[in-house]
Specification:
mainly alpha, 135 residues, rod-shaped
Length: 135
């Protein structure tokens, strides 16, 4: 190994080189701090998004429960509507049967009226014949 003498110029250059390296290290440290701040900011945003997603999941679960209740109500209403439709069909059928019975009854009444009138005519004719000896 050779021993070189360090003169002022060489020491100044070394000092400048060390200073430049120090400045670069300081710049890198500042950039690292900035990146760390950005990373922390992104982490905070990710945490915020996770919180919003959790809140969204909770709202979706509540909406799902409400949807299930609504579906149950709709199903119940459908059963009620079907029961009402069945009752209306039965009522129409009973009404039709009632009208048919009423028509049969009216026909019988008309037959009875005609028969009563015929019998009355016969009786009146018999009485008239009894009152009128010329017949």
């Amino acid at each position: 190994m050779s021993v070189e003498r360090w003169d002022d110029a060489r020491l100044d250059r070394l000092a400048n080189t060390v200073e430049r390296i120090g400045d670069r290290v300081d710049g890198l440290a500042i950039r690292l701090d900035t990146m760390a701040d950005r990373i922390n900011g992104m982490a905070d945003r990710i945490d915020g998004m996770a919180d919003r997603m959790n809140a969204f999941d909770i709202r979706m679960d509540a909406l799902g429960a409400k949807l299930e209740v609504t579906a149950n109500i709709a199903e119940s209403n459908a059963r009620v509507i079907q029961a009402l439709a069945n009752a209306a069909a039965e009522a129409r059928e009973e009404r039709q049967q009632l009208f048919e019975r009423m028509e049969r009854h009216e026909a019988k009444m008309e037959g009875l009226r005609i028969e009563t009138a015929r019998m009355l005519d016969i009786l009146i004719n018999q009485r008239n014949q009894g009152d009128n000896p010329t017949n």
